[in-house]
Amino acid sequence: MTKYILLVLVSFAIFSCQEEKKTKKENDKATVTQKDIEQKETLSPAEQFAANIQSAHQTSNFKSQEAIQFKLNLKFGGKQRMNAKITMLTNSSKIRIEKEDGTILMYDNEKAFLFPKENNYDGARFDMFTWTYFFALPFKLTDRGTNWQDLKENELNETQYETAKLTFGDNIGDAPDDWYVIYSDKQTKLMKAAAYIVTFGKDTATAEENPHAIVYDNYFSVNGVAFAKEWFFYNWSEEKGIYGDPIGSGEISNVKFIIAKEDFFIAPKESIEIKK
């Protein structure tokens, strides 16, 4: 009987050791796979540019968290555009925006809603997706449907930055015809700016008559992930780049990763669906 017990214990120890080696091997493989994604030799120079930005911002750390919450104070033309607490899953599939005036915007990965209905306003859907996209942009550069080209240098405030153009495949998001010109710091690889057009509700030609840019400033770290505390918005053109005085600004504060309750992103029954 003693020999039998000893044999069982030895067999269990060998099995546990094998399982531990197997798990370690699988984890090592996962690590290598992630590294290969970020430093893949077959990436084009523009794609490597995007991967470098994501690495500098610690995108793997960001995406390993369930949800993130922050405050956004946004102004344009000297007037308040939004002052809100924003909570979103780190993959952007669900969003909750609680505005200072009591308006709540919700996205449940299928539809966008507003509560209460008497607070409905034009541009609510734009507010839902635009500002959250700007916040998450450094972590979304290699998402499905992203295309990269035109790697070159451009000047901003008498400093040279690496830039590349981001476009999207068909049926990606609300506005697949949008494009961005992303600026990256040559030393830190952090995102410095993004020129963009807004095609939601208009055709591409009209949108390209009035491109703008967001500049990311004053970076700080939360759980090792890099975020910009300040946003500044400017006019932008292919010839001039970013020019003129700021036309708007945003301040990010109270950033923290959270675990959202199961019903947190469910819109109240009295909500209305917003499509514009």
From TrEMBL:
PROSITE patterns hit by this protein: PROKAR_LIPOPROTEIN
Native source organism of the sequence: Mesonia ostreae
State the protein's name.
DUF6503 family protein
Name the source's superkingdom: Bacteria
